Amino acid sequence: MSELQHQSWSRLNDLEYAPAPESASIARLRDSYGLFIDGKFSDPGSHSQFVTLNPATEKPLATVAAGSSADVSRAVISARRAYDQVWSNMPGKERAKYLFRIARLIQERARELAVVETLDNGKPIRESRDVDIPLAAAHFFYYAGWADKLDHAGFGPNPQPLGVAGQIIPWNFPLLMAAWKLAPALAAGNTCVLKPAETTPLSALILAEILQQADLPPGVVNIVTGDGATGAALVSHPGIDKIAFTGSTEVGRRIQRELAPSGTHLTLELGGKGANIVFEDAPIDQAIEGIIDGIFFNQGHVCCAGSRLLVQESVASDVQRRLIRRVEQLRVGDPMDKNTDVGAINSAEQLSRINELVDAGVAEGATRYSNSCDVPDAGYWFNPTVFTEVSQTHRIAREEIFGPVLSVLTFRTPEEAVAKANNTQYGLACGVWSEKGSRTLWVAERLRAGVIWSNTYNKFDPTSPFGGVRESGFGREGGRHGLEAYLNV
Amino acid sequence: MANVVTLPLCSQSSPSSTGADIVFGAPHQPSRIGSETELRVALGGLSGVDTVGANARVASLGTRSLKQGTKRALLDLAITMIDLTTLEGNDTPGKVRSLCAKALRPDPSDPTVPSVAAVCVYPDLVSLARTTLGDSSVAVASVATAFPSGRASMNVKLADVREAVAAGANEIDMVIDRGAFLSGRWGLVFDEIVAVKEACGSAHLKVILETGELVTLDNVRRASWLAMLAGADFIKTSTGKVPVAATPPVVLVMLEAVRDFAEDTGVLIGVKAAGGIRTAKDALKYLVIVNETAGSAWLTPDLYRFGASSLLNDLLMQRAKQKSGAYVRPDRFSGD
Amino acid sequence: MSNERLDVRKTYKLLINGAFPRSESGRSYEVTSSAGAFLGNVSWASRKDVREAVIAARAALSKWSGATAYNRGQVLYRIAEMMESRRDEFAAYVAASESLNDRESQSVVNETIDRIVWYAGWTDKVAQVLGGTNPVAGPFFNFSIPTPTGVIGVLAPQDSSLLGFVSSVLPALAVGNTVVAVSSERRPIPAVLLGEITATADVPAGVLNILSGVASELGPVLATHEDVDGLDLTGAGDLAGTLAADAATSIKRVFRPTALDLDWSASPGTRRLRAFVETSTVWHTVGQ
């Protein structure tokens, strides 16, 4: 165990970085939000409401409407009308221009959106500023260009949209997931009812304002906030032609089952337990950074997180030593501080789930190391944690933790690495670190995963299809492939 | 070591040992590498460097923002880390005298501004520089070994070094034979460094890798280790005479090398980023990279230097701005 | 009936892992032509036969999906060659099973052979058509390739005993899946004959397993089997909704045909090729 202790030539991070907080006032939030149906915000007072918190302070940010099944119905009817009367008849090149407009407006309001996202979600402002918001804009740009080129997308001539799409998105990348859902659906000619996550509704509501600014025809996109019941009402609504869901495998399974009799089109982007495989010839310093990015990016609230590190035994102790040194450097704290590496856990509920699994890891005999950064008293925090001495049977090696917790396992041969990586119900993403191209490709061919990052991790791009195999779901988002989920082909 | 120049230590945080003996701030001896094969095994066993990842890492470190107080301290630290350099064909005694004056008192109007670490000149100007600097703490560094190309016979290179040392140079900045390195004659490069090291006597040896000609980060890592194994006290990026000089990813890789070398051997080797660093902003970014890669033990002129000339004035300007809150005009400080 | 000699009647058996066992249950059932004439006794596959077939298909998957696309094409093309040489036998059974006249049944066999050739030719094109490189905004080489979903359960159409069977099974095989197929309940013999020729057409054991039996009995076993990755419900009839719900337990990919998919004479397009592939996307850094 002693070799795992943090040993370094100096205490890293002696330099004091300034708290460089982004200003919360940039968010310009309203006190309360209604639902965005048929191009208008409804009167918040006409709904039952819930409060969305800043998970870094536990202070309320705004009051948001809880959409009832009647609200969902109104939204679906509006979307149907817009589909029949406007959107499905509009030439693709006109649809394209609306999407380009939306992309531009997201760029113009990028700083505000980044602040809102960080306040509502708890993710570091560096990530919302450099990843979430620019990628959301990029998604609209990318799919905008497809709207008038669907004949050339490889699905035969004149492919038709599905109709009204119900889209349910998670809390880990709120605006980005909205963009991943809306952009391809609209480009393909569908209209949408979007249900943001209960704990992170705000950026979608700013997006609603943007849709108004863009003069998007009423009903083309409707945004109905609420909790699981609102989502369930959307799934069971008979006027829906397509459901796209991103979230847990457990809920995905229920949705698939529920939609089976009607045969409603469905795509699912579910959980994962990604393996990050480090071979002995890996570029070691970049591998360490990639392991860090793989599991601590967005507090580990990432379905494709590299939550299992599979490291070749010949370099395991070296990698663990370097990794733990690096984990100790991570700065955990105020998400609004530009120097923060790891922000707040999104909710008390998620924090307790992480605690439960970490306790299980300790109880099952794995060795725990946690970063020692001081965290604020208020808010939901979990210091980045690495478990070594983990075996395949431990819960922390099998269950998705969805938090900043890494399980380290070892392997001896490439075959063993592949076997261990694939020994899961999931199949979303994996990482491979090696300087040997032939082996990387050999491994990539055998990994059961929808995305494989080689000598990098957690990279996303609107042109690159993303999605899982097995119980990580089906269908792809991004790229030409992402259109298939919204076309009747 | 009799002639070792002691430089002011800005950071007293000293490394804690993992068991190996620490050699701190003293010249270290070449490792016993018996054959070309041994060297090849040693360097061949180093991990590769993925360029994309290295670039991403320095880009991410570049976004750190520093506390005001830290920034002020780092600006002063950066001044003390400068090897104030003139390496031109048209250098004159007058130019060197003025450089030495600037090195001792970078801002005559403000006595709180520290001296720089060293002046760096060609060998024929060492004696003048040493005389001008007197017994001050400012060291004289001299480029030698047929700087900048390194294309001369071994005898000539060694004579170059011996003359500079005899003239009073405290530090020798040698260039490696990049041709030999790139053509795989690593043993030759190793032997040259060992020989130069011996010729240095007690003078500190900085080994210039000329990373702009090595091109790949894999080469930078190998050359760093080769130089450290051969006895370098410092590894230095560049001569400043080729188009690509110090870059953040190159310095990152060199800092990783000295960090790992220290963990393996207990010996702390310095890093000098030279060429192309002109702004205080860049200098502070490098210091953040130093801090987060090798650690704060390297935040001392004993172990980290900037080879630069115009950087000094920008540091002075930013320092003055930090003090007064207002931007100052460049002409407030002397040209060299 | 002639009294010259007694004919030797054939027992139509299952195809599991390259062998032709009877059902482990010992059951068989009588198959007649649509006009009621006795055609043969056919093995009546059980739950345990499904289990064995899935094990065989899983075991065969890495070799079949790992074979070169060229090689898969050669193997599938060989099936067409074999069928061509036994076309009259196929035509006779198709005619008897589906009440077709000679010309019609010959035509079905022709289309079937051509359909096999069509899919044989797809094996080494599907990656180029469904995959490609993605121009990501960064220093990465990024490509997407279609990879097989895995073990696919196919409930073959009840009506089109040969062309429909082939049209359902071949696309899954062409992209590298292995298949456990349940043949048409009342018209199983053409599919059983096809199984016989695959054994001599170099189709590796376990790649295609054919179970004759009752879709409503075997379908739920396939739908709930966790190690079945995809389910084609073409022949599921009224059970399709229930089976699709069962399939949700392990998040299976489910293919539910539209009316267009059931026009066996129409050009098949790529829908069935796309039904059981996963898009796998690889990112690699680009640098010196």
Task: Summarize the structure in words.
The complex is a heterotrimer of chains A (489), B (336) and C (288). With 489 residues, chain A is α/β, with parallel strands linked by helices. Chain A is 39% helix and 16% strand. Chain A has a seven-stranded mixed beta sheet, with helices on both faces. In chain A, strand 2 (36-37) and strand 3 (40-41) form a beta hairpin. In chain A, helix 9 crosses helix 10. Chain A is globular. Chain A starts with 31 loop residues before the first strand and ends in a 5-residue tail after the last helix. Chain B is α/β, with parallel strands linked by helices and 336 residues long. Chain B has an eight-stranded parallel beta barrel, surrounded by seven helices. In chain B, helix 2 crosses helix 11 (248-265). Chain B is globular and about 60 Å long. With 288 residues, chain C is of the alpha/beta class. Chain C has a single domain (12-285), classed as Aldehyde Dehydrogenase, Chain A, domain 1 (3-Layer(aba) Sandwich), CATH 3.40.605. Chain C is globular, with a radius of gyration of 19 Å. The chains are: A alpha/beta (489), B alpha/beta (336), C alpha/beta (288). Chains in contact: A-B, A-C, B-C. Chain A binds chain C through residues 138, 154, 156, 249, 252-254, 256-257, 260-263, 268, 270, 425, 440, 444-446, 449-456, 459, 461, 463-467, 469-474, 476, 479-481, 484, 489, and chain C through 62, 66, 129-130, 132, 134-138, 140, 142, 144, 147, 149, 229, 240-245, 247-251, 253-254, 256, 269, 271, 274, 278-285. Strand 17 of chain A pairs parallel with strand 11 (277-285) of chain C.
